[in-house]
Amino acid sequence: MEVVSSVRTPLITGAKTVGDVTQDICVRVEAKPPRTWFMALAVSLSLLAVGTYTLFFTVWDGIGVWGLNKTIGWAWDITNFVWWVGIGHAGTLISAILLLFRQKWRMSINRAAEAMTIFAVICAAFFPLVHMGRLWLGFYWVLPLPNTFGSLWVNFNSPLLWDVFAITTYFTVSLVFWYVGLIPDFATIRDRAKNRISAAIYGTLSFGWTGSAKDWSRYESVSLILAGLATPLVLSVHTVVSFDFATSIIPGWHTTIFPPYFVSGAVFSGFAMVLTLMLITRKVYKLEDYITITHIEFMNIIIIVTGSIVGIAYLTELFMAWYSGVPAEQYAFLNRATGPYWWAYTIMMTCNVISPQLFWFKKIRTSLWATFILSIVVNIGMWFERFVIIVTSLHRDFLPSSWAMFYPTFYDIGDYLFTFGFFFTAFFLFAKFFPVVNMAEVKSIIKSSSSSNKALK
Amino acid sequence: MAPGNHFIVGVYGDDHHALKAVKSIREAGVKIYEVFSPFPIHGIDDALGYKRSRLPKAAFMFGTLGFALALIMQYWMMGYDWQMIIGGKNFASLPPFIPVTFELTVLLSALGMVFSFFVVSDLKPYKKPRIFDLRITDNKHVIAVDLGNNKLNKTEISKIMAQSGAEEVNEKSFD
Amino acid sequence: MKENKKQYWKGVEQLTNHPEFVKYASKEFPRDLPYKEGILQEEEGGSTRRDFLKLMGFSVAAASLAACEAPIRKAIPYLNKPEEINPGIPNYYASTYTNGGNYCSIVVKTREGRPIKIEPNKLSHVTGNGTGAQVEASVLSLYDQARLSEPSINGAAVTWAELDGQVKTKLESIASGSGQIRIISKTILSPSTKAVIQEFITRYPGAELVMYDPISSYGIIKANEESFGKAVIPSYDFSKAKTVVSFGADFLGTWINPNKYSSDFIKTRKLDHGNKEMSRLYQFESNLSLTGANADYRTPMKPSMEGLVVASLYNLLAAKAGSLGVSTHKVEVAYLSDAANDLWNNKGQSLVVSGSNDPNVQIMVNAINGLLQNIGTTIDLKTPVYFRQGDDDQMKQFVSELGSGRIQGVIFLDCNPVYDHYLGTKIQSALAQVNLKVSISEREDETAASVDYVAPNHHFLESWGDANPVEGTYSLCQPTISPLFNTRQAQVSLLTWAGKADVDYYEYVKKYWQVNIYPTQSKISDFQTFFDQSLHDGVYSMEARPMTLEMIVFGGDLNVAASQISSTYKTSNDGVELALYETIAIGDGSQANNPWLQETPDPITKACWENYLTINQAMANEFGLEMNEGNTYNVNLKVGDLSMVLPAIVQPGQARGTVGLALGYGRTKAGRVANNVGVNAYPLIGEISGSPALNRTVNVGVTMTGQPAKVAHTQTHQTFMNRDFVIQETTLNTFKNHPEHAFHRPKIAVSNALENKLGDEVVDGKMQPREISLWKGHTYNNHHWTMAIDLNSCIGCSACSVACQAENNVPVVGKQEVLNRREMTWIRIDRYYSSEKTAKSNAELEVAAENPEVTFQPMMCQHCNNAPCETVCPVAATTHSTEGLNQMTYNRCIGTRYCANNCPYKVRRFNWFKYHDNRQFSDNSSMNNDLGKMVLNPDVTVRSRGVMEKCTFCVQRIQYGKLEAKKKGRRVMDEDINVACASACPTEAIVFGDILDPESKVSKLLQVKANGEKQEIHEHRAYNVLEEINVKPNVWYLAKVRNKEENA
C-alpha cells in the first residue's frame, strides 16, 4: 500500500476507526430515516405523480401533444435525453477513472455517484423510448432480432442504432460495477442485521460474501478491470450520442468537434449534479466527516477544467462557422446568437462559460452555498446547451420556407418532470436502503489517511 | 477428523497484525484454511502463497468473442443476408460498424468476467455462507485453520495463534 | 353501366342505411345470397337440417378464413361481376366538370365503381393540359355528408311524387293566372339544359331564365357589344402575345378560364436551347394576385385610378400612332410607358386585358387592343367563350321585381344567390312573399334553406350532361357512379314539372346531340358511332368552318367612355380602398365544404382555413400590427354601413392605401367543415357605372381592434434570404448572352492529391460537388426515375398539391394543426419574396420588399441518391430502390423522426396523431366517415399514427405503368406513367420520367447525355437545390428567368 504524505489533509476527518465507519454508515440503513428524508421523498413522489399523468396522455394520444412540428422533429425529448446521459457520466468517471489514477478521495463519494449514474441513465433511456411514434413496436424493433418478416434487420449505419448499443452497454456495465462494489457492504449489513427479514434480504443481496482473502484478491482485479473497461466506455457513450448530430447534415449539427465537446460537457454537468446531490446527502445524513470540503474542492476544480473546455468548444464552433465560408453554416450560428432563440444562447453562455470561472477563487470553491448554487446553475446551462444545439439548428436550416418556431406544451414539461420525480425518488430510496458510502474501501484508507492513525504514528 | 468441519479461528483487530500472524503461523508449519477481512489486506495473497487470479484472461477472451460476434453479425446482416441501398453508401463498410463493435466488446468482456468471478468465488443469491465470525464484515480480521487437514492438534495451533497476536482464539465447527 | 345497377350498387344501400339493408344487416348473409330460403325459414323457426349443415359448413369455413386475416368490416361482394369492372384495375371515363361557368374537360378514374381521382382530358383544347385545385377536389364533394339525401318540403322529407305534385299544381295555378316565374341560375354551359329550360318556358309562358355569375364579367360583354356589336367574351390567345398588359385581371389564377390562359401564357415562357425568347407581362393591380406574382413588371395601384391608368395607356399609344388621345386626367404610374413601348413594338402580337367589370374601362381596353391591331390575332371575337353568361342588369331587375312582389314563382337552379350574390340579403327577405319557392341544389345551402321546396340534385359525377364552353366546341358529361342518395338530376326535375313523364335525361342528351350537334360534322356517318366517339373522347369540336371575312373593328364611342371614366375614377384618393378577390382554392365558395380546398393554402399568402384582410406594411405600422408566425390581430372593416371583424395579415405587394379580402368564405349552411369559417364578403361587392364591382373605393374604413388572432399559415418566412443554392434566377439578357455564367454553380476546392486522382473533373483546383463521393455509389441500370421542375413555368396554382392529396390519401389536419405547423401535404409550393435590393444583413434580408418579385418553387421529396434520411433510420424503414426511388416503408417505421430532422428539404411529414377514424379530426372527412372513405385510393395505404410519410413519386402509378408496359411486351414509356402532380399541372412545369430512356421528355428537357454509366445533364438552367451538400437529388429545377432589364 502506498504511503500518503502526512502533509496532505486527511480525506476522512474526525478520528474515525474502522468500527466507527461501519457504525456511521450502517446506522443510516438500520435506523428510522430523519423527517427531512420523508419530506424529500414526498416531494419527489408528487413530481412523479404529475409526470405519470402527462406521460399517460403522451402515449395515449400520440406525441402530437408535444410542441414539435414538421420542421422541429426533436426538442425537449432529445434535449432531456442528452442532458440525463451527460449527468450520468460523472458517476462512472469518478469510480472508474479516479480508481485507475488511484485517487483515494473518490472512495467516499463513488457509491452515491454510481447510483446517480444508473438512475440518470434510466431517465435518459426513457426519452428515446417515449419520443418514438410507435414505441410499442420500436422498443424491440431497434434490436437485431430474428423475426417473422424474414431477413429484416436493423440499419447499422444509423447513429441512433449506435445509441441503442452504447446506452445499453453503458447501463449494464455501470450496474454491474456498482453491484460488485455493493456486495461486501451488503454482507456487513447482513451480519449486523437485527431482524430476520433484513437478514434475509441483505443475505440474498450479498451473494453469500464472506470476505475471504481469495475473494478479495479476485474482487480487486475484477473492479480494476471493470474500471479499465468503463473508462473508454464512459468516453464512448457521449461520443456516440454526439454522433447523432455530428454525422447529420444540418448546419449546427454537422460538426466534427462534437465528440470531445460533448464528453467534456457531460463530465461538466455530471460533476455538478454529483455536487448537488452530495451536498444534500451530506447535510441530511450528517456525513460531513466522509464528504469533506476537500472532496468538494477537488470536484469544483474538475468543473473549472471541463467548463473551460466547453467554453473553448463554443468559440471554436463559431470560428469554424465563419471560416467554413458556407452561408447556411454561418447563418445557423449567427441565428443562434442573435435569432429568435438568442436568450437560450445567452443563458447557455453565462451558465456554462462564465459561472464556473468563479471557482478560480478559493473562497467560492470551498464555500458550500456557492458550490451548491453554481452546481445547479451549471446544470441549467447544460440543459440549454443541448436545447440550443437541437432546436435552434433545426428551426432554421437550409430552406427558409420551412423555418418555424418551437413552443413547449404542458406535456413537454410534464414528461420532463416525470424523470425528475423518478430520479429523486430512486435516489432517496437508495440513500435509505443501501450504504451510501463504500465502507470496505473507506476502511482500507482509514489506516493511511484517517487523522487518528496519524496521531498514533 | 474429517476436513472442512472443525476450525480454529483467530481474531485480529488490525490488518497489519493479521498479515504478520499469517506469516508466523505458516512458518510454524500450520496450514491456513483461509483469511477473512472487512477490506482487502494488501500483500496477504503473497503471504498465503496464492497465485494471481486468471480473471483478466477471462475478460480478454470474452472481449475478443464480443468483438468477433459484432463484426460477423454486422457484415452478415448488412452485406450478405439482405443488401439494402442506404444513402448511396456501400452495402457493408467498416467505419459505421465500429461503434457497435466496440460496445459489444466491452459488454461481453465485462459481463463475462463478472460472471466468471461469481462462479469461481461461488457467489450467488440464497447462498448460505460459512461465517467464522460476525465481526469479519465489520472491523475484525480472522485467520481460520482447518483441524481436518493439519498434523498439529488443536491446542498447539491455538497456542501458535495466540503467540501470533490474536485477540481471541475460538473454535468453530460446521456440520 | 345501367343494367347491372342492383348488385353493383349494393354497398350504397349500406351507406345510406337503406331500410332493406338495415333489415338484413344483422344477418350473417344478405338476403339475396343463395342461402336465402334457409335464413327465411330459420326466421319462421322452420329451418331444415340441411340448411343448418349448409350454414354451419359455411360458417366454419368463414371462421377459419377470418382467422387468417384481419376482419374486413365492410366487404361488399359482386354477386354478378359487371363485365367492365375488375377489382384492382381502374376504369377511366371522360367527362366534364362544370360548376356554374367554371369548366374543365376531365377524365375520371374509378376503382370498383367509385370515382377516386380526376385527371385532365388532354384531348380538350379548351382547358389546356391540366386541371385545377377545385376540379381535382370536386371528387371529394361527391362523398360529402352534407349533401341532401332526399326531397323535402319545408324541411320535411317527402317522396318525389309528393314534391312533383305540389310543385306542378302551384306552377299551373301561377301559369293560369299568367303569373311570373323565374328560373335563377349561374351560367349554364349545357346546351341541352338550355333546351330543357326552353321546354319549361313554353309550358309555363310566364317563366324566364335569369343567369348571374357570383364574380361577374358582364362588363366585358357589354363593352364588346358597344365596341364590336358582339355581346360576347372573346377567346384570348395568350400563346400569340409577346407583350401582355393586364389591369387587375388574374388570368393565371381565377379570371374566366385560367386553366387555358395559363397554359397558353406559359407556352411563351418556355426556354430551351432552341428558344431563347420570352413574352413579357406587365401587371397593374392592387392585391398581389397570382398573375401579379408571375409578372415581369408589377405596379401596385389603387382601384380608384384604374380607369385613368387604362386611359393614359391609350393616350400613350395614340401618341405613337399619331392619332389624338382621349381627354382624361393624366396619371403617372411606374412602368406604364415601358408597357406602351413594348406593346407598340409588338403590334398585333400583344394583348391588353382588364379584370374590371366597368364597361367603360373595358371599352377603353378594346380601343387599345384595336389600336394595337390585336383584334383577330390575339383576340378572337368569332369564337366567343361562354364561361360567363350572367346578365347583371337582368339579375338586378329580378331582385327589384322580387321585392315588388311581381314574381309568384322562383326556381333556383343549382345556385345559391342568397349567399353568393351581392344582393343576397335582399333576395332572401323578398322571398318571403313569393308563392312558389323551389331550390334544385346539392346541399341545403343558404338559398335552399330559405325556400319551401328542395329538389336535391345529382353531383356532376352522377349526372348525364353536356357543355358548350366555347363556340364550336362541345363536351359530354357521363355518370361514373350511380346516385348515392335519393336525388334527381336538375334537368329531369324541370322536365317532370314541365309535364314530361318519366324522362330519361341520357336519352334526352342523346336526342339533342343527334338533332343539333351530329349534323355539324361529316366524318362519321352513323350517329351512334359519333356519339360513342364523343363520349369516349369527352370532347367534340366542329370542323373548322370557313372564317367569315367580315373584319371586326373597334366602333365604340371612346369619348363617352373617357368622360365616364374621368368622372368615376380619381387621380388620387386618401381613403382606404377595398379590393375583393377570388382565391384559387375556394373560388366563389360553392365548394367551400371541401376540406382539401380549405386546407390548400392561398398560393400568395400561404394561409388557409379562413379569409383575412391583406394590408400593406405601412398600414400595419400605423396599427402597430406585427406578425409573428401565424399570430396577428383582428381589425374592424367598415364598408358603407356594413362592418365586420376579421384578422389582418401583412401582404407585401399590397398597394398602399388598399386592403384585400377573399370571397367564398363565411358560409353558414355549407356543411360542418365550412360553416362559420371566415367572413362572407359578397355583401361588400359594390357597383361601378351600374354593374357590380369587386372594388370599393369610397367610405371604406379599417380600424385596429387590438384583440390577437391566429391565421394558419403553411409558410411563415417570406424571403429566400438571397440563398442562390435554393432559388436560382436570372434575367433574359444574361441568360441569352452567357447562359453558362447566368447561374450559381457551387464548386468544391480539392487537394492536389485528389486533383491528380480525378484529373479532368477538376478545373483550376475546384470541382463540382456531385463529382466527389466517399463511396462507389450505386448505378441504376434498369430505370432511373427523375423529375424536372421548370420554375419559369410554375405559376403556383396549387393544382399539383390537391392532386397529390387525392392520389395519395394525404390527410387534412385542420386549422389548429396547421397553426402547429403540422400540415401533411407531400408536395408544397414554396413562395419566396425578394428582399429590398439594398438589403445586406440577415435582419434586412428577412423582410420582404414592399413590391417584391415572387418565385414559386414546388418542393417535394427530392429522392436523393445519397439520401441523408436513409442513413439515419435505425430500423431501415426508408431505403433506396434500384430505380432511384427513396422508399418509405410505413409498417416498419417506428417514428423516431430522425429522418425528418436530417432532411435538408424538410419534406417528410409525421403522423402526430391518428388522423383517420378519430373524432378529433372529423374535418378530415375522407378518412372519418364511411361516405368520405369511398374517395380513398385503394392503392395507397392510409398511414397509421406515429409513422413518417412523404412523396413516393406515386410509386403505385409507376408499378401500374410497368405492368401495363409488360402486358404490351415493351419497355415503359412516358405515356405509361405520369405522377399525380405532373398530370394535374396546367403549364407542364413538372415533368417526370425515366432518365435512362433517351426518348423520355425529362431526358430531352434536361439535355441528358450518357457518359459511360453517368448521365450528364447539359441543360444550362438545370440545378439541384442544395447541390453543395451532395445528396444527389433526382429532382432537377430549371432556374427562373425574368424578362426584365438588369437594374429594374
What does this structure look like?
The complex is a heterotrimer of chains A (457), B (175) and C (1048). Chain A has 457 residues and is an all-alpha fold. Chain A has one domain (18-446): Formate dehydrogenase/DMSO reductase domain (Formate dehydrogenase/DMSO reductase fold, Up-down Bundle). Chain A is built from 17 helices and no strands. In chain A, α6 (159-192) packs antiparallel against α8 (213-246) and α8 packs across α9. The longest helix of chain A has 34 residues, at 159-192. Mean pLDDT of chain A is 88; it is low at 1-7 and 448-457. Chain B is α+β, with helices and mostly antiparallel strands and 175 residues long. Chain B has two domains: 6-52 and 130-173, Alpha-Beta Plaits, CATH 3.30.70; 55-120, no CATH class. Chain B has helices at residues 15-27, 44-47, 55-81, 98-120, 154-163; strands at 6-12, 34-36, 141-146, 168-173. A four-stranded antiparallel beta sheet of chain B has the order 2-3-1-4. In chain B, α3 packs antiparallel against α4. Chain C has 1048 residues and is of the alpha/beta class. Helix content of chain C is 29%, strand content 21%. Chain C is built from 35 helices and 45 strands. In chain C, β23 and β24 (642-650) form a beta hairpin. The longest helix of chain C is centred in the N-terminal third of the chain and has 20 residues, at 49-68. Mean pLDDT of chain C is 89; it is low at 1-10, 28-46 and 65-69. At the B-C interface, loops of B face α29 of C.
Task: Supply the key terms.
heterotrimer, A: 457 residues, mainly alpha, Formate dehydrogenase/DMSO reductase fold, B: Alpha-Beta Plaits, 2 domains, 4-stranded antiparallel β-sheet, 5 helices
Record the SSE blueprint.
The complex is a heterotrimer of chains A (457), B (175) and C (1048).
Chain A: H1 18-30, H2 35-61, H3 76-100, H4 107-130, H5 135-141, H6 159-192, H7 196-205, H8 213-246, H9 258-285, H10 293-324, H11 327-338, H12 342-354, H13 362-365, H14 368-395, H15 410-433, H16 439-449, H17 451-456
Helix pairs in contact in A: 1-16, 2-15, 3-4, 3-8, 3-9, 3-14, 4-6, 4-15, 6-7, 6-8, 8-9, 9-10, 9-14, 10-11, 10-12, 11-12, 12-14
Chain B: E1 6-12, H1 15-27, E2 34-36, H2 44-47, H3 55-81, H4 98-120, E3 141-146, H5 154-163, E4 168-173
Antiparallel strand pairs in B: 1-3, 1-4, 2-3
Helix pairs in contact in B: 3-4
Chain C: H1 5-8, H2 10-15, H3 19-25, H4 36-43, H5 49-68, E1 91-99, E2 102-111, E3 114-120, H6 133-142, E4 152-153, E5 156-157, H7 160-176, E6 180-186, H8 191-203, E7 207-212, H9 218-228, E8 233-236, E9 243-247, H10 258-267, E10 280-285, H11 290-293, E11 297-300, H12 306-321, H13 336-345, E12 350-354, H14 359-371, E13 379-385, H15 392-404, E14 407-413, H16 417-420, H17 424-431, E15 436-440, E16 453-454, E17 465-470, E18 473-477, H18 490-497, H19 505-517, H20 527-537, E19 539-541, H21 558-568, E20 576-581, H22 595-599, E21 607-608, E22 613-615, H23 617-623, E23 631-639, E24 642-650, E25 658-662, E26 686-688, E27 691-693, E28 695-710, E29 712-713, E30 729-731, H24 732-737, E31 748-749, H25 752-758, E32 766-767, E33 785-790, H26 799-807, H27 814-819, E34 828-833, H28 842-845, E35 854-859, H29 868-872, E36 878-880, E37 886-888, H30 898-902, E38 909-910, H31 925-928, H32 930-933, E39 948-949, H33 955-968, H34 980-984, E40 990-994, H35 1001-1005, E41 1008-1011, E42 1014-1017, E43 1022-1023, E44 1035-1038, E45 1040-1042
Parallel strand pairs in C: 6-7, 6-14, 9-10, 9-12, 10-11, 14-15, 15-16, 20-25, 22-24, 30-45, 33-44
Antiparallel strand pairs in C: 1-2, 2-3, 4-5, 4-16, 8-13, 17-18, 18-19, 20-28, 21-29, 22-25, 23-24, 23-28, 26-27, 31-32, 33-40, 34-35, 36-37, 38-39, 41-42, 43-44
Helix pairs in contact in C: 6-26, 8-18, 9-14, 12-13, 12-14, 14-21, 15-17
